[in-house]
C-alpha cells in the first residue's frame, strides 16, 4: 500500500486526489483549488468533479454571477463514510498497531512507528518501520517475545501488503543509542508516532543516566 496516497488501493489517482482535497476542509473550493490541493491537472480535476457531482458525492454551487463554481464533499452521502475511511488508512494503521501491541502478554518498554510510514511519504515498496524497546527483564531469545514480534510482522503484511521493518533494541542499549546517535535516533526524534510507552526523547534521556 502507498501510505502517501492510500486511496490508490481502489480509487483512480485523479478521483482520489480530488476527494482528498475536498475531505480536508468543509470550506467550498473552486475547481482550481481542488486541482492544486489534490495534485491533479485542472482539466483532469474538472472531469473527476463532474463525475462526482453526477453521483451526488460532491455538491456544486455558484459563487455568484460569472464567478467560479464551488465544490464541497457531501458528507451525508452513503459513500462518504467509506471514502473518508479510505483516505484515513494511515490513521487506521496506527490504531491497529497500537491495539495489537497493547495486547501483548509481554509489553514492550516502548513502541513507535517511524520512517516513511510515519511521515506519510512511503510507497508500495516501502517497509512499515516499527521501533520496539525490549524490557531488561525479557531475554532476547524468550519464545513468547519472539512470537509477538513475528505475529506483528505477519499482521503488517496482511494489513498493508508492505513488509514490516522491526527495529528492536534492548532497554540496556538505550544509553549507547543516546551517546552514539545513529541515524535511526534522528529519524525517531523527527518522525516517530508513539504507539506504546514514553516518548523517544524521554527514553534516550533516561538512557544517559
What does this structure look like?
This protein is α+β, with helices and mostly antiparallel strands and 209 residues long. The protein folds into two domains: 6-86, Arc Repressor Mutant, subunit A, CATH 1.10.10.10; 89-207, Beta Polymerase, domain 2. Helices cover 48% and strands 17% of the residues. It has helices spanning 13-23, 31-38, 42-54, 80-87, 89-102, 116-119, 143-160, 174-180, 183-191, 200-207; strands spanning 29-30, 58-62, 69-73, 110-114, 128-134, 164-170, 193-196. A four-stranded mixed β-sheet has the order 6-5-4-7, sandwiched between helices. A three-stranded antiparallel β-sheet has the order 1-3-2. The longest helix has 18 residues, at 143-160. The two termini are 41 Å apart. The mean pLDDT is 92.
